[in-house]
Amino acid sequence: MDFTELLGIDAQPGVPLFEQVRTRMIEAVREGALPAGTRLPTVRELAGQLGLAVNTVARAYRELETAGVVETRGRFGTFVASSDPAGAAMTAAAGAFVAAARAVGLGKADALRYLDVAFDNVGGV
């Protein structure tokens, strides 16, 4: 698999390279380009393919593993996790958000305005 094409990393000012690797890997998982169970290249291999420092790719892999997007199986390598962690994380966050909104007496429309503002203030997702 050609990860150079799949990830399309470029030197955008203000977007760290590890963040580009991380977000593009998540997009590839969600779009099905990297299905669950796919073995990923080693950190060194991917760094070589992308022309990046080993530490840059290692940081992206660490963050992906912390988020549950990939899992490392020791010397067998790193694999795309069998489930999308976004579903569970976002369901829990949405439940907490709804509970907080209801606790202060907000309805759905008013609560959603706060989400819109929050997305706008952090540059969206």
UniProtKB/TrEMBL annotation:
Keywords of this entry: DNA-binding, Transcription, Transcription regulation
Which PROSITE patterns does this one have?
Answer: HTH_GNTR
Among SUPFAM superfamilies, the record links this protein to: Winged helix' DNA-binding domain
Q: Which CDD domains match?
A: WHTH_GntR
Give GO MF terms, alphabetically: DNA binding; DNA-binding transcription factor activity
Q: Name one Pfam family in it.
A: GntR
Domain of life of the native organism: Bacteria
HTH gntR-type domain residues are 15-83
Name of the protein in its database record: GntR family transcriptional regulator
Name the species this protein comes from: Mycolicibacter sinensis (strain JDM601) (Mycobacterium sinense)
